[in-house]
Amino acid sequence: GESVGLxxxxxxxxxxxxxxxxxxxxxSASDYFIWYKQESGKGPQFIIDxxxxxxxxxxxxxxxxxxxxxxxxxxxIAATQPGDSAVYFCAxxxxxxxxxxxxxxxxxxLVRP
Amino acid sequence: xxxxxxxxxxxxxxxxxxxAFWCDPISGHATLYWYRQILGQGPELLVQFQDESVVDxxxxxxxxxxxxxLKGVDSTLKIQPAxxxxxxxxxxxxxxxxxxxxxxxxxxxxxxx
Lengths: 113, 113
Description:
The structure holds two protein chains of two kinds.
Chain A: E1 4-6, E2 10-14, E3 19-25, E4 30-38, E5 45-51, E6 56-58, E7 62-67, E8 72-77, E9 86-94, E10 102-103, E11 107-112
Parallel strand pairs in A: 2-11
Antiparallel strand pairs in A: 1-3, 3-8, 4-5, 4-9, 6-7, 7-8, 9-10, 9-11
Chain B: E1 5-7, E2 10-13, E3 19-24, E4 31-37, E5 44-50, E6 53-56, E7 65-68, E8 75-79, E9 88-95, E10 103-104, E11 108-112
Parallel strand pairs in B: 2-11
Antiparallel strand pairs in B: 1-3, 3-8, 4-5, 4-9, 5-6, 7-8, 9-10, 9-11
Protein backbone atom coordinates (compact mmCIF):
# COMPACT_ATOMS: atom_id res chain seq x y z
CA GLY A 1 0.00 0.00 0.00
CA GLU A 2 0.97 3.65 0.04
CA SER A 3 3.38 4.59 2.79
CA VAL A 4 6.14 7.03 3.47
CA GLY A 5 8.52 6.05 6.19
CA LEU A 6 11.59 7.49 7.86
CA UNK A 7 14.66 5.57 8.97
CA UNK A 8 15.32 7.43 12.23
CA UNK A 9 12.75 8.96 14.55
CA UNK A 10 15.35 11.26 16.20
CA UNK A 11 18.59 12.73 14.88
CA UNK A 12 21.00 14.62 17.14
CA UNK A 13 23.76 16.71 15.53
CA UNK A 14 26.36 19.20 16.68
CA UNK A 15 25.80 22.81 15.73
CA UNK A 16 27.74 23.56 12.57
CA UNK A 17 27.74 19.99 11.33
CA UNK A 18 25.78 18.80 8.34
CA UNK A 19 22.53 16.88 8.88
CA UNK A 20 21.08 14.17 6.71
CA UNK A 21 17.48 13.07 7.14
CA UNK A 22 16.38 10.03 5.18
CA UNK A 23 13.01 8.88 3.93
CA UNK A 24 11.84 5.77 2.11
CA UNK A 25 8.71 5.72 0.01
CA UNK A 26 6.85 2.74 -1.32
CA UNK A 27 4.87 4.01 -4.32
CA SER A 28 6.96 3.98 -7.46
CA ALA A 29 4.25 6.04 -9.18
CA SER A 30 4.92 9.03 -6.94
CA ASP A 31 5.71 12.11 -8.98
CA TYR A 32 6.30 14.89 -6.50
CA PHE A 33 8.07 15.00 -3.16
CA ILE A 34 8.25 17.69 -0.51
CA TRP A 35 10.15 18.23 2.71
CA TYR A 36 8.41 20.14 5.47
CA LYS A 37 9.76 21.47 8.77
CA GLN A 38 7.43 21.65 11.74
CA GLU A 39 8.28 23.47 14.94
CA SER A 40 6.39 22.75 18.11
CA GLY A 41 2.84 24.14 18.03
CA LYS A 42 3.12 25.36 14.44
CA GLY A 43 1.98 24.15 11.06
CA PRO A 44 4.40 22.46 8.63
CA GLN A 45 6.64 24.89 6.78
CA PHE A 46 7.68 24.17 3.20
CA ILE A 47 11.42 23.64 2.83
CA ILE A 48 12.10 22.24 -0.61
CA ASP A 49 10.48 20.04 -3.22
CA UNK A 50 11.57 17.84 -6.08
CA UNK A 51 9.82 16.22 -9.00
CA UNK A 52 10.48 12.70 -10.17
CA UNK A 53 12.28 13.86 -13.32
CA UNK A 54 15.10 15.22 -11.13
CA UNK A 55 17.55 13.54 -8.79
CA UNK A 56 18.89 16.57 -6.95
CA UNK A 57 17.73 20.03 -6.06
CA UNK A 58 19.44 22.67 -3.96
CA UNK A 59 18.10 25.51 -1.90
CA UNK A 60 19.60 27.77 0.68
CA UNK A 61 21.62 25.45 2.97
CA UNK A 62 19.39 22.53 1.99
CA UNK A 63 19.67 19.86 -0.68
CA UNK A 64 17.17 17.16 -1.55
CA UNK A 65 18.30 13.97 -3.24
CA UNK A 66 15.94 11.55 -4.93
CA UNK A 67 16.92 7.99 -5.78
CA UNK A 68 14.03 6.44 -7.69
CA UNK A 69 15.81 3.13 -8.11
CA UNK A 70 15.64 2.38 -4.39
CA UNK A 71 12.73 4.76 -3.67
CA UNK A 72 14.75 6.87 -1.28
CA UNK A 73 14.61 10.57 -0.50
CA UNK A 74 17.01 12.55 1.67
CA UNK A 75 17.27 16.07 3.02
CA UNK A 76 20.71 17.49 3.67
CA ILE A 77 21.10 20.57 5.84
CA ALA A 78 24.48 22.29 5.71
CA ALA A 79 25.99 23.96 8.79
CA THR A 80 23.09 23.00 11.04
CA GLN A 81 21.92 25.79 13.33
CA PRO A 82 19.89 25.73 16.57
CA GLY A 83 16.95 27.17 14.62
CA ASP A 84 16.91 24.01 12.53
CA SER A 85 15.70 21.99 15.52
CA ALA A 86 12.26 20.71 14.57
CA VAL A 87 10.42 17.68 13.21
CA TYR A 88 10.99 17.09 9.51
CA PHE A 89 8.44 15.33 7.33
CA CYS A 90 8.82 14.02 3.86
CA ALA A 91 5.68 13.76 1.77
CA UNK A 92 4.90 12.18 -1.57
CA UNK A 93 2.22 12.62 -4.15
CA UNK A 94 1.37 9.42 -6.00
CA UNK A 95 0.11 10.19 -9.49
CA UNK A 96 -2.66 7.63 -9.11
CA UNK A 97 -4.28 9.31 -6.07
CA UNK A 98 -5.52 12.63 -7.42
CA UNK A 99 -2.34 14.27 -6.17
CA UNK A 100 -3.10 13.61 -2.51
CA UNK A 101 -0.08 14.42 -0.34
CA UNK A 102 0.92 11.50 1.87
CA UNK A 103 3.12 12.27 4.86
CA UNK A 104 5.53 10.09 6.74
CA UNK A 105 5.72 10.02 10.52
CA UNK A 106 8.57 12.52 10.84
CA UNK A 107 12.12 12.77 12.16
CA UNK A 108 12.99 14.99 15.08
CA UNK A 109 16.23 16.93 14.56
CA LEU A 110 18.00 18.06 17.73
CA VAL A 111 20.91 20.49 17.39
CA ARG A 112 23.45 20.41 20.21
CA PRO A 113 25.18 23.72 21.01
CA UNK B 1 4.45 37.28 2.76
CA UNK B 2 0.94 35.86 2.38
CA UNK B 3 -0.04 33.16 4.85
CA UNK B 4 -2.88 30.77 5.50
CA UNK B 5 -4.96 31.99 8.44
CA UNK B 6 -6.75 29.72 10.89
CA UNK B 7 -8.89 30.32 13.93
CA UNK B 8 -9.18 29.60 16.72
CA UNK B 9 -5.63 28.53 17.54
CA UNK B 10 -6.78 26.47 20.50
CA UNK B 11 -10.13 24.93 21.34
CA UNK B 12 -11.15 22.93 24.39
CA UNK B 13 -14.54 21.28 24.35
CA UNK B 14 -16.43 18.51 26.05
CA UNK B 15 -17.38 15.37 24.18
CA UNK B 16 -20.74 15.49 22.40
CA UNK B 17 -20.39 19.26 21.84
CA UNK B 18 -20.08 20.86 18.42
CA UNK B 19 -16.91 22.65 17.28
CA ALA B 20 -16.02 24.62 14.18
CA PHE B 21 -12.72 25.69 12.69
CA TRP B 22 -12.16 28.42 10.14
CA CYS B 23 -9.52 28.75 7.43
CA ASP B 24 -8.67 31.59 5.05
CA PRO B 25 -6.26 30.42 2.34
CA ILE B 26 -3.62 32.46 0.58
CA SER B 27 -5.29 34.85 -1.83
CA GLY B 28 -5.64 33.33 -5.28
CA HIS B 29 -5.17 29.75 -4.14
CA ALA B 30 -7.89 27.64 -5.71
CA THR B 31 -7.17 24.44 -3.81
CA LEU B 32 -7.79 24.15 -0.07
CA TYR B 33 -7.06 21.18 2.18
CA TRP B 34 -8.01 20.19 5.72
CA TYR B 35 -5.67 17.80 7.53
CA ARG B 36 -5.74 16.16 10.94
CA GLN B 37 -2.47 15.60 12.74
CA ILE B 38 -2.26 13.36 15.77
CA LEU B 39 0.67 14.10 18.08
CA GLY B 40 3.84 12.46 16.83
CA GLN B 41 2.43 11.63 13.41
CA GLY B 42 2.30 13.25 10.02
CA PRO B 43 -0.79 15.11 8.82
CA GLU B 44 -3.56 13.06 7.19
CA LEU B 45 -5.86 14.55 4.59
CA LEU B 46 -9.51 14.90 5.60
CA VAL B 47 -10.93 16.85 2.68
CA GLN B 48 -9.75 18.69 -0.42
CA PHE B 49 -11.56 21.50 -2.23
CA GLN B 50 -11.03 22.83 -5.71
CA ASP B 51 -12.72 26.24 -5.60
CA GLU B 52 -16.07 25.48 -3.94
CA SER B 53 -16.22 21.82 -4.95
CA VAL B 54 -15.10 18.84 -2.90
CA VAL B 55 -12.43 16.89 -4.77
CA ASP B 56 -11.63 14.27 -2.14
CA UNK B 57 -13.40 13.58 1.14
CA UNK B 58 -12.75 9.85 1.28
CA UNK B 59 -11.04 10.11 4.69
CA UNK B 60 -13.59 12.45 6.25
CA UNK B 61 -15.77 10.74 8.92
CA UNK B 62 -18.98 12.00 7.42
CA UNK B 63 -21.19 10.88 10.29
CA UNK B 64 -19.75 13.67 12.44
CA UNK B 65 -17.49 15.84 10.27
CA UNK B 66 -18.57 18.33 7.64
CA UNK B 67 -16.67 20.89 5.58
CA UNK B 68 -17.75 23.67 3.30
CA UNK B 69 -16.22 26.33 1.11
CA LEU B 70 -19.33 28.06 -0.14
CA LYS B 71 -17.76 30.93 -2.08
CA GLY B 72 -14.58 29.16 -2.99
CA VAL B 73 -12.46 31.27 -0.66
CA ASP B 74 -12.54 30.61 3.08
CA SER B 75 -13.64 27.32 4.57
CA THR B 76 -15.18 25.88 7.72
CA LEU B 77 -14.65 22.42 9.20
CA LYS B 78 -17.22 21.26 11.74
CA ILE B 79 -17.36 18.33 14.14
CA GLN B 80 -20.66 17.36 15.73
CA PRO B 81 -20.63 15.66 18.13
CA ALA B 82 -16.98 15.75 19.18
CA UNK B 83 -15.47 12.57 20.57
CA UNK B 84 -12.41 12.04 22.76
CA UNK B 85 -10.52 10.57 19.81
CA UNK B 86 -10.92 13.82 17.86
CA UNK B 87 -8.28 15.52 19.98
CA UNK B 88 -5.62 16.54 17.49
CA UNK B 89 -4.18 19.44 15.51
CA UNK B 90 -6.38 20.46 12.59
CA UNK B 91 -4.38 22.01 9.79
CA UNK B 92 -5.50 23.92 6.76
CA UNK B 93 -3.35 24.24 3.65
CA UNK B 94 -3.76 25.85 0.26
CA UNK B 95 -2.11 25.71 -3.15
CA UNK B 96 -2.54 27.54 -6.43
CA UNK B 97 -3.51 24.37 -8.23
CA UNK B 98 -2.77 20.70 -8.02
CA UNK B 99 -0.18 19.40 -7.96
CA UNK B 100 1.58 22.35 -6.43
CA UNK B 101 3.26 23.27 -3.20
CA UNK B 102 0.86 23.24 -0.28
CA UNK B 103 1.29 26.00 2.29
CA UNK B 104 0.02 25.33 5.78
CA UNK B 105 -1.62 27.52 8.37
CA UNK B 106 -0.69 27.47 12.07
CA UNK B 107 -3.40 24.93 12.90
CA UNK B 108 -6.10 24.62 15.54
CA UNK B 109 -5.24 22.46 18.54
CA UNK B 110 -8.43 20.69 19.63
CA UNK B 111 -8.74 19.04 23.03
CA UNK B 112 -11.88 17.05 23.75
CA UNK B 113 -12.53 16.34 27.42
